[in-house]
Amino acid sequence: MSSDTRDSQQAVRDGLLAILPRLRRLARALAGHVDDADDLVQLVLERALSRADQWRPDGALDKWVFAIARNAWRDELRSRGRAQAVFLPEEAGMAIMDDSIAPPVEQLAVAAAMAALPPEHREVVALVLVEGLSYAEAAELLDVPVGTVTSRLARARAALQDQLGPEA
Description:
It is built from eight helices and no strands. It has helices at 3-31, 34-50, 61-80, 90-94, 105-116, 119-130, 135-142, 146-164.
């Protein structure tokens, strides 16, 4: 193993630690289910580490890892044959009677509304509104025109507004 390969792998390891919280947020936004999100994060970390030599140090590590996550999640949905079936985590129903550990009703409503969005709308919401990527960055990551990101985000916002009511 060459010194450059070792350096690249170490840079990816260090970078993954730094972006892990963002990766988890993205995975939960994409998957909607805690177990699916955890599995997705593990798969993304494995792929990123095993393909560390493919990352270009002049490129943004977070975009590279987010692209791996997006592609891995799409692969998972295709393999399951359930592109629209994403459910709330079991924990959401288990703690419903205990106010001390139950998440606020608003959080459950937002999670349910997000889960009801089509996957391509959920991706744009996760990248732009949750992760703070610009429209151009999200378009590059999704390999679509900026106008597509804009229209998907507008439709997603409208759908969320319809589901959550005027207070949202």
